[in-house]
Amino acid sequence: MKTIYTALVICGLIFSPLAMAQKYVSVSHDTIATSYNGMNFSSEKSLLENLQPYEGFSTIAEFIEANAVSIFDEDFMGTVFVTTNSSFEAEEDTEEDEVDLNLASNRQKILKFHIVPGRLDAHGIKKAVEKGGGTAYFATLQGENLGARLKDGKVVLFDSENNTATIIGSDLYHKHGFFHIIEGLLLPKIE
Predict the structure, then answer these.
(1) Which pTM does this prediction carry?
(2) In Å, what is the CA distance from 89 to each residue of 51, 69, 103?
(3) Cα 125 from chain centroid?
């Protein structure tokens, strides 16, 4: 009897962690569809596949297309702050500290500066700002921090030069995480 009891205890110790771990494994792969201003996005598509049909994202889509292989591997999970074409156009119209957007190295740095590892939804950003006393910082793939604060109830991101971008569309899905649409161009340190 003691042997049976010991065997049951050992089996329980071995299999109970496996059973508990299984409750966190998702067996369904439901597609999550989100939209912004009549544009539809899907969690089944890559970020590039989601953005390419829409002219307002053609510049960032070019950046992604040139660098997607090196950034978005199968296991990558991240949050991307997607800049609109109008933000790139506004940067090109300024005279001061002009950044050459045609250089592949600059494009890669800018793209990586707009990506934060992990899933970061709008609620998480706002909570981090509150917890940080009004400001939060997120490490980007470029290795620099991207700042966030709230202004008139909206999340405003900023870089080390205090360039700002406002989140105008949030919690949109792509195959590798979330993306948020921003108005404004944030720049990493480019030498």
Answers:
(1) 0.81
(2) 18, 26, 16
(3) 11
Indicate whether 79 belongs to any domain.
Answer: yes
For the chain, the domain total comes to 1
**Position 19 pLDDT exceeds 70:** no
Residues 6 or more apart whose CB falls under 8 angstroms from that of 42 comprise 31, 32, 33, 34, 50, 173, 174
Residue 128 lies in a domain: yes
List, in sequence order, every residue forming a beta bridge with 164; answer none if it has no partner.
158
Q: Kindly tell me the sign of the dihedral angle through the C-alpha atoms of 169, 162, 78, 90.
A: positive
| pLDDT (mean) for 31-45 | 93
Domain encompassing residue 174: 32-183
pLDDT reading at 120 higher than 80: yes
Say if residue 27 is exposed, middle or buried (CB neighbours under 10 Å; 0-12, 13-18, 19+): exposed
Tokens standing for 107? 């494009």
The sheet with strand 177-183 has its strands ordered as: 115-117, 78-83, 177-183, 164-174, 154-158, 145-151, 136-139
| Share above pLDDT 90 across residues of the chain, in percent, rounded to a whole number | 63
Which letter does DSSP use for residue 45 in this model?
S
Highest mean pLDDT among 32-36, 64-68, 126-130: 126-130
